[in-house]
Amino acid sequence: MTEPATGPARLEISRAEHAGRRARLAQRLQDSGLSRICVFGPVRVAYLTGFHFAATERPVALVLTDTGDVTMLLPALEAEHYAHQCPDLPEPLTYPEYPGGGSGRHPLTLLADHLRASRPGRVAADHDGYENRWGYRGPALSALLEQPVHDGLALIDDLRMIKSPAEIALIREACRWGDHAHRLMQDAITPGANELTVSHAASLQATRDLLTALGDRYVPKAREGLPANTMFISGANTAHPHGLHRNAGVQPGDVLVTGAYGVVGGYESELERTMHVGEPTPDFERYFAAMLAAQDAGLAALRAGRTCAEVEADVREVIAGLGLTHLIRHHTGHAFGLEGHEHPFLDLDDHTVVEPGMIFSIEPGLYVPGLAGFRHSDTVLVAERGAERLSLYPRDLPSLLIPAH
Asked: pTM, whole model, 2 decimals?
């Protein structure tokens, strides 16, 4: 964590840790016989430099050489913002505007000129040119350079799989505020309550509480969204894994599937619960118990040295033993950190070896058409032995019942 001159540590990744990430990536370039890598993904740029920005149609790119030299391509409007966040890095290469701002030059031609002026060598990138967003159109980097651009995505994202102690501390803190937001929301849900208004009110109150408690230690890393968020969907709509909100009030007998997360230092948490309004039916209790058993199997299966596929297989074996395989709609979980979903995935076709320091969601779901969906999700840290649940919200049914009156 970054330590200011006075006062407690700010909740963000230090410049020294960002420098260490770049050094490890530079070593991976050397090991792969690559002279440099162009990084276009906004989250990857932030991971390597600490520069968090609003990604628009204006290309941003980081060039890192195998010796650790840094060049950043930026629109001129971001230059001061970059200098404020990254005073330890060299001045950027800037362009006036996208698609050219009257210069007659597309911004990526500036990047290509810089790369051509560098010493010869194999070039990699996380994407062959800037990613299409907000109306952006531009040439492929390989076309501009008239040479192959090698796929360097895994060189960066494999580094991101193992979280550092500082990253884990930020995610642990994010879990605390996701749990708090969920508690405020659950306490506010009553028959007739609207999904949207209750969710947003609880998120806003949890954010106020977070800002009061953390004070100047909290360092926002985005222009949009709140640092503590929660929501729910209700009724038969929950039978869709990614069901949308209803503009209707909660009714007795409704099943609720919730979501909550915190964001601290740019790092996210994940928490989901299945709840019931009023006295649950035998069918609800049966499917809830099956879902809980599947999640228990995932928590027990997530151990260092196993593969993601083996974790998924253990969960599916439990569900199959209950005769409910036909209700599965997705894999058991995914890694996350700076993004809500990251590589690797707890999936039968992902054979990544689980290692200490990885963080996953464990969220096997069962979806009963016409009735409801059943899914808990927890943030789980892989430890040297076993796994540690970082989101600590209750999982048992009695704790997740909403009074019907």
From this structure: 0.95
